[in-house]
Write a structure and sequence with these properties.
Layout: E1 4-6, E2 15-26, H1 36-43, H2 49-57, E3 61-63, E4 66-68, E5 80-91, E6 102-105, E7 109-114, H3 131-138, E8 159-165, H4 168-179, E9 184-192, E10 199-202, E11 205-207, E12 215-217, E13 225-233, E14 237-244, H5 251-258, H6 283-290, E15 297-305, E16 312-316, H7 321-331
Parallel strand pairs: 8-15
Antiparallel strand pairs: 1-2, 2-5, 3-4, 3-5, 6-7, 7-8, 9-14, 9-15, 10-13, 11-12, 13-14, 15-16
Length: about 325
């Protein structure tokens, strides 16, 4: 087998830059008749199937000097696979002493209870003060992992539970599990209006046609499925439990707005609509709703298989204090 490999990671994280990943393989007998993406998962075990499929789809993989873009193509013994792909590396993000609520940690995973208002990952207009900066301070070795081990995100103003990979092997396993939907995420939300019953929202989500920082339900979007059930009804609001089959950007917020029950406090989706005050709302409730400036959405439960032992583990996060107060006022 020919196996030439090079690339480098920065030892600091975060502005995004690109370097090259280059590999050449001769297909061994035991991988003949395997799909291309399956074979690459064996040949390059430290990278997720999702990333490998992305490389194939975008023309970064050749077989016998011919570019292939179909991941399901079957391989033949002694074919030569060449990969020449750009790979994002991250640099210059600095460790920052930011308090974190770590509810569980071992040598493979870290479970964080994120408060509302904390950005998960640096980006345009927010270069520091993020969860990533905090992770680099509390767990310095995460500088060697893509995005400091962060495998999924919560919006800045969504509170609740997140899992972080503690090493590259765990990172690959968790990313694959997320792709295969074996990691289960459960949320609670307070929405405007009185829902009659629970249900399923099956509506594709994509980038908004005119507001490019927003997402929307559009026919050409990616499949998105949200399940919700009622926990408690109030006069003009509903407390719901939400589970996701898919993980699209802003999925719960977009879907609830799509069915005309936007999440209380959402400043993007449903913004500007009535507060749905009940007829006899107290002054305290009126004031509280007027000042509730973040979406009433909390990631309350996460279920996963441990990347090393495969033991099923479940973690919960108590409902954020501001949402507890909102529910108290709605019930009074």
């Amino acid at each position: 087998m020919v196996n030439v490999f090079y690339h480098k990671f920065s030892t600091n994280i975060l502005s995004m830059t690109t370097t090259n990943f280059h590999n050449t393989f001769e297909v061994p007998t035991d991988l003949a008749d395997k799909r291309l993406d399956q074979a690459l998962s064996v040949l390059i075990p430290n990278y997720s199937r999702t990333l490998l499929q992305h490389w194939i789809k975008n023309g970064y993989v050749k077989i016998d000097n011919k570019t292939v873009t179909q991941q399901r193509i079957k391989l033949i013994t002694q074919q030569i696979i060449i990969i020449d792909a750009p790979i994002e590396i991250q640099e210059t993000a600095q460790p920052q002493e930011i308090n974190l609520n770590v509810i569980y940690s071992d040598k493979d995973i870290i479970i964080i209870d994120k408060p509302a208002g904390l950005v998960v990952h640096p980006g345009a207009g927010c270069k520091d003060g993020t969860l990533l900066n905090a992770l680099l301070y509390h767990f310095p070795k995460l500088a060697n992992l893509p995005r400091a081990g962060i495998i999924h995100r919560l919006d800045k103003d969504t509170s609740g539970i997140l899992v972080i990979a503690h090493n590259l092997v765990a990172h690959k396993k968790l990313v694959d599990d997320l792709q295969q939907r074996t990691i289960k995420r459960e949320y609670e939300a307070v929405v405007c209006g009185k829902l009659i019953s629970g249900g399923v929202i099956d509506a594709a989500i994509g980038r908004h046609k005119t507001q490019r920082t927003h997402m929307a339900v559009i026919e050409s979007g990616r499949s998105a499925v949200t399940h919700y059930r009622i926990i408690e009804r109030f006069a003009n609001h509903t407390h719901i439990n939400v589970t996701l089959e898919t993980g699209r950007t802003h999925q719960i917020r977009v879907h609830m707005d799509h069915i005309n029950h936007p999440i209380v406090g959402d400043q993007v989706y449903g913004h500007g609509r009535s507060l749905h005050l009940p007829p006899k709302a107290s002054d305290e409730l009126r004031q509280f709703l007027a000042n509730f400036k973040r979406q009433a959405l909390h990631a309350i439960r996460l279920t996963l298989n441990h990347p090393r032992t495969n033991e099923q583990m479940q973690f919960t996060s108590p409902l954020a204090q501001d949402m507890q107060e909102l529910l108290r006022l709605l019930a009074s």
